[in-house]
Structure formats: structure tokens, C-alpha cells
């Protein structure tokens, strides 16, 4: 049993459990599927990052109960237990990019005008933000509703926010016009 925390230490321990039972593997913290640093049980664990980098770890208590934590690829930090992976990813960004919650939430680019859109996004985000692996915030448009690892321009996450429903009063207003 390893008590070392952080995504790298967890994944090292997980990939060392060569002949463990399935139940033991399920109950061992490991990097979430598709999140930065993910490998299978037989993979090579990732090398530590130079900069604090967001990812998630998870363990399976029962089929219906998975626990997720935000984690970092550079240090031993871990977030609290969460039932949803996206909440854990957000915790991780509170650690790696504490100002992310104050950044503007953008609409996803439509096919035409993608270059203009990108200039607009860049102008509204801090200089050098994406080059440093910072996340991009977008309004969730199905099927894109799960935070997407590696999808921001510099390889950071796209973090989705559900658009607030328009207020009933304005809907009534429209109906009256
Ligand atoms: Zn860190």
C-alpha cells in the first residue's frame, strides 16, 4: 500500500500492481481514463511535469460509486473526493490556474470565422495564457459537455459551463412582441 499522493506517485503505484486482483486495481487510485498522464495498468507512468498541470485520479468503490480527485502532474497535491470527474478537474484548476474562474466564457467557434474567433479569444485572455497550458472556458454545447483534456490551443483543458436559461420574463416579452 502506497500512501504517496499526487498523480505521478499514484500512477507509479498502480502500474506496479502487476498481479493484483481486479477488485484491488479498481480500488486503487489511478489517473482517470483519457486525462493527462493516463496509462493502463501495464503502461509506463508519466514523468513529472515542470509546471503544475491539472489531471484527475479515480478509484472505483462499486459500479455505482466512483470517487474522483483533482490531482497534479508536478506535485503531491490532491483535491477532495468528488462523485463527478468534472468537479475534480475544476478542483485541479483551482490548484494549477487559480484565476481560471474569473476568465470569460466563450461560445464555441462556428465553422466560418474561426480565425477571427481565435483572435477574439486571445485578446480576452491573459497574455501567454494558452502557451502556458492554461484552460479555455466555453459554453457547453452538446455533445461537448464534459471537460476535454488537451483540447485548448496550448494543450490545456477546455472547461465547459452550462449556459444559464434565459429568464422567463424575457421569454414572455418576446411572446408579446
Ligand atoms: Zn501541483
TrEMBL record:
InterPro entries assigned: DUF6349
Task: Please list the residue ranges that the record marks as compositionally biased, kind Polar residues.
Answer: 168-177
Please, which domain of life does this record's source organism belong to? Bacteria
Region (Disordered) residue spans: 151-177
Name of this protein: Uncharacterized protein
Species the sequence originates in: Streptomyces marianii
